[in-house]
């Protein structure tokens, strides 16, 4: 099915590629290669099979005796991802230490995150990749070698002697194999797989918010305006956030504790909502991210304070202080604006995965403030917009 899609979309993407080539035709070959690799990374992250094929072909066309567009292990991992075993075997059969040395003498692409993403994604889906090899129209020799090569490329953890024995067993079983040149001259020792990139991140947002009350609270308090900010961690699409919302609003009517104790209409009040939220990215694309969140915390309403002669904060209505538990549900929408480059925040190799965005957040808070005073029965619908960062 994916090959049919590639065929149908080829004319459109060819025109797109031609337009981009026209835009960068005056750039150096190295700059052109770096630009195309950036597009290839985004297409791979979006799992856009058609675009990945076209950008890979474009890099191949840009290569010459001086420049290389894709390093050999990047290219081979892409072959596994696309199921292009024929291309893979053709290259491996001609690959040896001499060919590798020639490639190393060429100008290499500017350091980016392409290999890290390929390595991470294929490692996470390695079991699917091994199944794909077994299901492919390959003979037993090709299946055995494709399995060995993938384990090498992903640096799966093996005992060194065991690994050497497996390579020797392959050569003995297939003495005339076209792959034996690679196996004989490379003899790789597979190192332990390091932690994959892009799994963890640090999240921060600062938003302006509006709160609209429901039930009795809608009569008691006017709409609140303030700030809503969060600090947390991101781990493989899971989000863990500490949040604090703070709004200010005036009273829409008197609140009485008893006939002689009144918080009068028109006075200012403050609303605080500290919470811990958990959510999951149901959509995380190149320019857009959507994350539903649920959480629990506290809801607090207090009269605004003033300073006395000694500089201490005091309230004119000290008996009107209300606190209750709170549940909340929200949806965060991020429109990604720009990439956070290396050195802007942290010196990490995968800064291409870090970004700044406009965040729109809306949701609902369920409170129980009415247990203290019937005038505070109700909940809150809130809306917020501001700036968000995710740094991986």
Structure description:
By secondary structure, the chain is an alpha+beta fold. It has 2 domains: 185 residues, no CATH class; 192 residues, Porin (Beta Barrel). It contains 12 helices and 13 strands. The strands form 3 sheets. Strands 1-2-3-6-8-11-12-13 form an 8-stranded antiparallel β-barrel. A two-stranded antiparallel sheet has the order 4-5. A hairpin with a 2-residue loop joins strand 4 and strand 5. Helix 1 packs across helix 3. The radius of gyration is 30 Å and the shape is elongated. The two termini are 34 Å apart. 28% of the residues are buried. The N terminus is likely disordered.
Describe the SSE topology.
Layout: H1 2-23, H2 29-45, H3 49-62, H4 72-82, H5 85-93, H6 97-105, H7 114-124, H8 126-135, H9 140-153, H10 160-173, H11 180-186, E1 200-213, H12 216-220, E2 224-235, E3 238-250, E4 255-258, E5 261-263, E6 268-280, E7 283-284, E8 288-303, E9 305-307, E10 313-315, E11 322-339, E12 355-367, E13 380-391
Antiparallel strand pairs: 1-2, 1-13, 2-3, 3-6, 4-5, 6-8, 7-8, 8-11, 9-10, 11-12, 12-13
Report strand order across the widest sheet.
1-2-3-6-8-11-12-13
CATH class category of the largest domain: Mainly Beta
| Average predicted local confidence, pLDDT | 83
- In DSSP terms, counting alpha (H) and pi (I) runs of 4 or more, how many helices? 12
Rg, Å, rounded = 30 Å
Q: N-to-C SSE series?
A: HHHHHHHHHHHEHEEEEEEEEEEEE
> Which fold name fills CATH's third level, the topology of the largest domain?
Porin
Strand tally is 13
The major sheet is characterized as: 8 strands, antiparallel, barrel
Q: Which parts are unreliable, with pLDDT below 50 for 5 consecutive residues or more? A: 1-7, 192-197, 342-352
Strand content: 25-35%
Number of separate domains: 2
The second-level CATH architecture of the largest domain is Beta Barrel
Ends apart, CA distance between termini: 34 Å
Shape: elongated
Structural class: alpha+beta
- Helical content class: 25-40%
């Amino acid at each position: 099915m994916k090959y049919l899609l590639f065929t149908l979309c080829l004319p459109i993407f060819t025109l797109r590629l031609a337009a981009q080539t026209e835009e960068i035709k005056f750039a150096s070959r190295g700059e052109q290669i770096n630009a195309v690799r950036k597009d290839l990374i985004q297409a791979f992250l979006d799992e856009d099979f058609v675009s990945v094929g076209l950008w890979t072909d474009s890099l191949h066309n840009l290569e010459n005796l001086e420049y290389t567009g894709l390093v050999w292990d990047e290219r081979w991992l892409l072959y596994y991802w696309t199921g292009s075993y024929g291309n893979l075997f053709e290259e491996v059969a001609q690959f040896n230490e001499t060919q590798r040395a020639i490639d190393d003498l060429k100008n290499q692409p500017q350091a980016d995150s392409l290999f890290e993403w390929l390595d991470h994604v294929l490692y996470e889906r390695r079991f699917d990749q091994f199944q794909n090899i077994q299901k492919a129209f390959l003979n037993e020799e090709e299946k055995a070698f494709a399995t060995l090569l993938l384990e090498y490329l992903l640096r799966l953890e093996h005992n060194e002697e065991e690994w050497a024995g497996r390579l020797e067993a392959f050569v003995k079983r297939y003495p005339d194999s076209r792959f034996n040149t690679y196996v004989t001259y490379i003899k790789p020792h597979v190192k332990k797989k390091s932690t994959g990139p892009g799994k963890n991140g640090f999240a921060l947002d600062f938003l302006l918010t509006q709160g609209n009350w429901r039930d009795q609270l809608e009569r008691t308090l006017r709409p609140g305006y303030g700030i809503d900010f969060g600090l947390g961690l991101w781990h493989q699409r899971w989000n863990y956030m500490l949040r604090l919302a703070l709004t200010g609003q005036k009273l829409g009517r008197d609140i009485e504790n008893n006939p002689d104790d009144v918080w009068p209409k028109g006075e200012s009040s403050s609303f605080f909502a500290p919470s811990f939220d958990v959510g999951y990215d149901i959509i995380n694309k190149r320019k857009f991210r959507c994350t539903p969140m649920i959480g629990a915390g506290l809801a607090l309403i207090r009269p605004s304070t003033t300073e006395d002669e000694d500089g201490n904060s005091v309230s004119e209505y000290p008996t009107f202080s209300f606190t209750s538990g709170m549940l909340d549900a929200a949806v965060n929408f991020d429109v990604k604006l720009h990439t956070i480059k290396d050195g802007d925040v942290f010196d990490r190799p995968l800064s291409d995965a870090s970004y700044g965005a406009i965040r729109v957040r809306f949701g609902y808070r369920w409170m129980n403030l009415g247990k203290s005073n019937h005038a505070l029965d109700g909940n809150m619908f809130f809306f917020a917009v501001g700036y968000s960062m995710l740094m991986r």
